[in-house]
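Customer ticket, subject: "Can you confirm the structure for Flavanone 3-dioxygenase 3?"

Message body: Hello, I'm evaluating your service for our small team and ran a test protein. I'd like someone to confirm that this is what the system normally returns, since I don't have a reference to compare against.
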Amino acid sequence: MWIEDYRDQHLGRETMEGDHSASSFTSAVSLDKLGVSSIPQRYVLPPSQRPSPHVPMISTTLPIIDLSTLWDQSVISRTIDEIGIACKEIGCFQVINHEIDQSVMDEALEVATEFFNLPNDEKMRLFSQDVHKPVRYGTSLNQARDEVYCWRDFIKHYSYPISDWIHMWPSNPSNYREKMGKYVKAVQVLQNQLLEIIFESLGLNRSYLHEEINGGSQTLAVNCYPACPQPGLTLGIHPHSYYGSITVLLQTRSGLEIKDKNNNWVPVPFVEGALVVQLGDQMEVMSNGQYKSVIHRATVNGDDKRFSIVSLHSFAMDRKMGPALELVNDQHPKSYKEFCFREFLDFISGNDITKGRFLDTLKMKKL
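Agent reply: Thanks for trying us out. I re-ran your input and got the following:
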């Protein structure tokens, strides 16, 4: 009965079965503030999908790439090779000395924390389940479709070109746009630099798709994973891959896990000042399968909140992209169909993505 009392008092009563309106919104952050001793059934995963503490984690080494070496001609080729190997074998690596000031990262996380600490009514001004909306606050992964909720609240907003979108971002906290905007601009520069390196590691020209990248999109997903009273029963986010070319993750503590080529879950260690780079579906398609989009999930803990800021780089909404012609030949036939960002949004708006990956719909049958 406690959850019904909570909804009546804080969120309003559901008007009908299956209602997914703002009145039925259950916030993981609000549940944490109530000090609940157990999680609602809606968040409980089937036993086979839970992050069992009894399964030993595999010690796959996640590369930490020092980007300062890119300015040293004597070692730059080695760094590019290291990034290429990481993209091929894991689809994920961390970067240090990336030239984003620690103060810029700290201030972005600071305003993210302040946003999630706002009263629920204030955050609900931005609530939406429409995945096409450029700015939306929500919970889980896709609240309207998820059979089991994730222990996570988020605010997502389009971020590039920043001048087109910043006026739609949260106005509370009052310095959110300023501080998050500084981080967005800095990470956009880093993403472009990383894409050039990744293209070169594939044997492509550094300026490959330069115009498409400059005319592309950037989405920021700002996440809060509250302390959870039963972390062994749920996840902060279910296993999935990102749709874009690459993403850059800033986090306050460990919790991210990636699936390696042997289908083992590997924890990504927290490294102070480092950023986590993950390949998305667009990169797997563009590389014609040479590089892999990484499947990942977020675990939760019973001690403290975890915050993360995920910057997702994609091509323009309706810009079709497929395997690079330079990477298609008799030995490596075309393996993926073309697609665009809008098609991905249409897919997740109509499907529970824990039951099937968008990428799988793009794979071509081998003759």
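A couple of notes from the result: Confidence is low (pLDDT under 50) at residues 1-20. The first helix runs from residue 2 to 11. Feel free to reply with more questions.
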